[in-house]
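Problem: given the chain below (154 residues), write out its structure.
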Amino acid sequence: MKVHFSSKSNEWNTPDDLYNILYKEFNFTLDPCTNGENNKCEKFYTEKENGLIHDWSKDIVFMNPPYGRQIRQWVEKAYNESLKGSKVVCLIPSRTDTKYWHDFIFNKASEVRFIKGRLKFGDSKNSAPFPSAIIVYDKNFNNTKYSTFDYRRV
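Solution.
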């Protein structure tokens, strides 16, 4: 599996050990952001199928979106689908200075877990050049809970 770490690709393949811990907690049913080879769920959408246009309201979603400019659309979609009943767990860069964090995460997500250290995506030997966070959207929770998450110690 080839993993890209440049602006040429927005794909950052989810580390299996991190996904497995989250799956045990949430039992995901949908992966809306896959290239068709790196899907984490049996039900998934590729770029061609465009997960942004589908209804997720009946699913428990694991979302590791493309990290380019379109990430705002994915985070907004995750938030809106949670309002319709879906639970959505997102793995995204911890870019707390961006507008989408202020518009759709702070005081809107039920939980924000700042990952301790930097992730190694896919088969990479090097850590990512940015910090990451797990964002949980669940309309059954009213107040955002913030924590650090050392998944290596779970």
